[in-house]
What we know:
Layout: H1 2-29, H2 36-58, H3 64-86
Helix pairs in contact: 1-2, 1-3, 2-3
Amino acid sequence: MAQANDRYLDAAKQDYDRLKGEVQSLKQSITNPDGPDSQLLDTAWADLEDQWQRLQAVGETASEEVQQSFDQGRERLRRVIDSYRQG
């Protein structure tokens, strides 16, 4: 079980780092940083950061609930990023 959690944490870290880069790139291209779209991106990113910190705090003992919260935050941010890219 610990080995599976280690793999999950490694994959989560890779996803977090990749999404962080995508968010930073998007923020540089946003023309209205105070607009509602930018605020939505900021909110989704802040949520994922919070979930990542919770996941890191418990480490390999992360419960399924903590992992699911991170997964949900990642998916919300992914949808926001995808909507930016589509138009």
